[in-house]
């Protein structure tokens, strides 16, 4: 009795299930994220990510994600596009 097809099917199913679990973008804590992590957000490049870190260092942690609008160059639309990925844990 060959068990290869059953084993291969189980491996395929496992890889699909775990792949879907990791397919969602992880939440980014804007109070602790580094420049590279912040630059991965939609509409945030290197210079805006650096501005976020500089603002955070000068003014302390963000109380809510909407406070990102206080950073020059970051608007409400950018915050809305990234709303599901932002957190201030």
From TrEMBL:
Helix-hairpin-helix DNA-binding motif class domain ranges (all copies)? 36-55, 66-85
One function term, GO molecular function aspect: DNA binding
Q: Name one GO biological process term.
A: DNA repair
What InterPro entries does UniProt report for this protein, alphabetically? Competence_ComEA_HhH (IPR004509), Endo/Exo/Phosphatase_dom_1 (IPR051675), Hlx-hairpin-Hlx_DNA-bd_motif (IPR003583), RuvA_2-like (IPR010994)
From which domain of life does this come?
Bacteria
For the keyword Signal, the answer is yes
Q: What is this protein called?
A: Helix-hairpin-helix DNA-binding motif class 1 domain-containing protein
What is the native source organism of this protein? Marinobacter salsuginis
Taxonomic placement: Bacteria, Pseudomonadati, Pseudomonadota, Gammaproteobacteria, Pseudomonadales
């Amino acid at each position: 009795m060959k068990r290869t097809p059953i084993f291969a099917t189980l491996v395929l199913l496992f890889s699909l299930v775990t792949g879907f679990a990791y397919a969602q973008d992880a939440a980014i804590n804007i109070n602790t994220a580094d420049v590279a992590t912040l630059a991965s957000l939609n509409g945030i490049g290197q210079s805006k990510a650096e501005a976020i870190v500089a603002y955070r260092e000068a003014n302390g942690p963000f109380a809510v994600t909407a406070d990102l609008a206080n950073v020059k160059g970051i608007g409400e639309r950018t915050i809305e596009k990234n709303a599901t990925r932002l957190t201030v844990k």
